[in-house]
Amino acid sequence: xxxxxxxMIVGVATVCFADAFSDGKAALEQKRNFDALxxxxxxxxxxxxxxxxxxxxxxxxxxxxxxxxxxxxxxYAQACRAKEALGCANMALSYDTP
Length: 98
Description:
Distance between the termini: 53 Å
Number of helices: 5
Helix content: over 70%
Shape: globular
Radius of gyration: 14 Å
């Protein structure tokens, strides 16, 4: 019985990741940068590597927030740890550029 409950929690968490990420993506497409920043932050804090990647890109480019390349690099590293390949690539590139 405990295994079934654990699987149900993982399923619910996955849906929450997708919702926050989808909300962020939609907000970014509609140029609602503050809403996108908030949604990607929630997605990243929930463990979604793609959310961390997008949040890092927002910080790197100063979209919806002040530009902060250190924060971007940290978020790319978090995305990389979550198995997001582009997060790893962006993290590596961030070490190569001033």
